Amino acid sequence: MIDMNDGEKRRLMRLRKRMSQKRPHFRQFEEWRLVRIKDHWRKPKGIDNKMRQKRRGWPRTVNAGYRSPKAVRHLHPSGMEEVAVFNVGDLTIVDPETQVARIGGTVGRRKRRFILKEARELGIRILNPGKIDLEEEAVTEEVEAEPLEEEEETQEVVEADAEEAEEE
Question: Which end of the chain, N or C, is more open, meaning fewer C-beta atoms within 10 Å of its C-beta?
Answer without folding.
Answer: C
